[in-house]
Amino acid sequence: xxxxxxxxxxxxxxxxxxxxxxxxxxxxxxxxxxxxxxxxxxxxxxxxxxxxxxxxxxxxxxxxxxxxxxxxxxxxxxxxxxxxxxxxxxxxxxxxxxxxxxxxxxxxxxxxxxxxxxxxxxxxxxxxxxxxxxxxxxxxxxxxxxxxxxxxxxxxxxxxxxxxxxxxxxxxxxxxxxxxxxxxxxxxxxxxxxxxxxxxxxxxxxxxxxxxxxxxxxxxxxxxxxxxxxxxxxxxxxxxxxxxxxxxxxxxxxxxxxxxxxxxxxxxxxxxxxxxxxxxxxxxxxxxxxxxxxxxxxxxxxxxxxxxxxxxxxxxxxxxxxxxxxxxxxxxxxxxxxxxxxxxxxxxxxxxxxxxxxxxxxxxxxxxxxxxxxxxxxxxxxxxxxxxxxxxxxxxxxxxxxxxxxxxxxxxxxxxxxxxxxxxxxxxxxxxxxxxx
Length: 437
Prior knowledge:
Mean pLDDT: 96
Oligomer: single chain
Radius of gyration: 27 Å
Number of strands: 16
CATH architecture of the largest domain: 2-Layer Sandwich
CATH topology of the largest domain: BirA Bifunctional Protein, domain 2
Structural class: alpha+beta
Largest sheet: 8 strands, mixed
Number of domains: 2
CATH class of the largest domain: Alpha Beta
Order of helices and strands: EEEHEEHHHEEEEHEEHHEHHEEEHHEH
Number of helices: 12
Strand order of the largest sheet: 6-10-11-16-15-14-13-12
Shape: elongated
Strand content: 25-35%
């Protein structure tokens, strides 16, 4: 039967005949009155089957239903004081569209909880849980809110290659591929091609898509394949322009979630507050002093580890009552060749990370646009200049000051919703021990 309504539209249909399609979430056979809970993409509705009023055909069909059968129900919407949503359907006709085998390998009702590995083995069944659907509806609105902000600022959505001919970051693990007999790589970040577009005169752009890291880690914050939203823009004064853009974009995304995901946040038991602007900022080398006050001593010129990020997050929360903060002016020795050094103090780079609830969710900063400096820094990092000429040569022909950042959509979602494992905020996660389903 052709669907006329989704379940979330039925409150406005009292007294009307409707047809709804979905999955048999549950069947309750109580003798005189039987109930079917039908679930679709928007929610659930109760279907009430009274033994003394329903047809023999409907009664027999209800008795044969299994959990997760795909069904179509045609009937009248009536008010109900006990049904969730205040309405239920009295059926005139029920059809089984597709049968589900029993027993189910995983119960979407979560009557019998399963471990994460089992859930990911049966991911399509696991995703039928309302909590999982809520996570991805929130994630979609978060991304949409950030994109809306960038579009209002005049940014152009672009697509950049996933296959690259040279490694962009020394020391980072990459996935090598056979590209028609030549060695190529899956990109670690779309940034170099964003810079090439700035060089082409595309002054305000953003990319949205996957990147890959061949790091054999199974940590709860790590993925081998992750997705980012990555703006880049020209004629910036310095990295503080990028900081302003990023914090406003993050707030725009969170506002969208708060406005449009009330039901999803209720399902997840989350209350989200929109963070205040501006986000606090910490800079090197002052960061070393703060860490030492908390008992963490790092050698000058060294990068931060995860423990350091958590210590700084606690410092910010105590001092500023904020869950977001920027880390700026990293040691240039630990940053890639394309990051601009501070001219007056080249020990430090115009490199910025955004930390949210103790976890780095983005990296960015001002890029080096001067050809001689780029070549010098490639040599400093011990990289092969010849293999990067596809990137460097255009900088000989006039490229403006520019910069940007790349924010991890999964990490942002994970921390926004306080979900302990990043694999739960990816539809089909890829990590060291999993490449399917």
